[in-house]
ABC transporter domain-containing protein (Asanoa iriomotensis), 381 residues
Amino acid sequence: MPHARGRAQADLERAGPTEVGGNIMTESTAGESVATQTPTKEALLSAQGLQKHFPITKGLLKRQVAAVKAVDGIDFDVYKGETLGLVGESGCGKSTTGRLITRLAEPTAGKIMFDGKDISHLGTGAMRPFRRDMQMIFQDPFSSLNPRHTVGTIVGAPFHIQGVKTPHGVKRAVQDLLKLVGLNPEHYNRYPHEFSGGQRQRIGIARTLALKPKLIIADEPVSALDVSIQAQVVNLLEDLQNELGLTYVVIAHDLSVVRHISDRVAVMYLGKIVEIADRESLYSNPRHPYTVALMSAVPVPNPRRREANQRQRVLLTGDVPSPIDPPTGCRFRTRCWKAQDICATTEPPLVVREGDAPGHQTACHFPVADNEEVAGRTAAA
Ligand SMILES: Nc1ncnc2c1ncn2[C@@H]1O[C@H](COP(=O)(O)OP(=O)(O)O)[C@@H](O)[C@H]1O
Ligand code: SF4
Ligand SMILES: [Mg+2]
């Protein structure tokens, strides 16, 4: 962990809120500020057939009558040094996926490989060394910090819990972390309520970094923050990644945040990954109707692009079906304007389509072609 004030801090001082405010979804901002790091293609984490069904029980005997199929068989890799964005509407299983891969939840089926080791069913003791390597940042910086503890206690807790020795003491280590995330080390004795939302998220990030994790799962890390502050926290996460060689999974329902920060993006729908690709490939050639619909929901600030976007507008309406009894075949078929008979009977596999970029996988029988006219389509029940 560097002791000097990081580049993250210097960058944030340069970038005032007016400079970055609200721009995180623009083309130019996204294009210019994306991490320059080239990820290696070695998987740090690999999920294979991962499943989480929450049982629904009834009566005194707690007989299982059904299950919420929150995550229903997903496969993906997270490469060392990359950021994988995980995106989809609320309830599609993003947080559960995050909890599964950090083993905060026990998978119903499937396998999780971390750094070459199978951690799918490790117990608390066996998981302990891995706990240091994988950390989560949560959405709500207000509820994730104990209001009765000082910043020093909060950020220093991981050292005590894991029994980690620090060369110059825990206080100095905590103060270094506060500097690293752009906070004043003199805030050590302050309480969370004395900070703004953005500052609290920085405290949460400092705590996350304490044990030098390899993988950080950020679950909607900026959703609870003002738009102007969102850009700053996203920039901080990117700078920390470059400085510390971190690997991220960033969960968001908002495609704009994911676009800015991700090297690759996985789109989830009702417990399944429906499309996964390099960011460029996904945004320039989305194939799955759901991805197209999600994308056309993102506001476009540039007027010329806005016009082009209007021509490609799909209205995503209607509710997501229940994960207790998802539609047969393709789960998106009840909202898809391209659905045909086969979509109800046969689940489309997640595969690379002919002509698509390597690694661009889509689960659809009738993927959207380049320049296909989709304007005015309504993706609804
Ligand atoms: N502990 C739980 N018990 C029962 N159902 C759950 C539990 N946690 C999540 N779910 C359900 O699993 C589905 C996926 O939830 P979640 O992973 O939180 O989605 P997302 O993060 O994409 O909004 C939802 O239908 C949710 O209600
Ligand atoms: S498989 Fe069929 S229903 Fe599903 S997204 Fe593709 S076209 Fe639509
Ligand atoms: Mg969630």
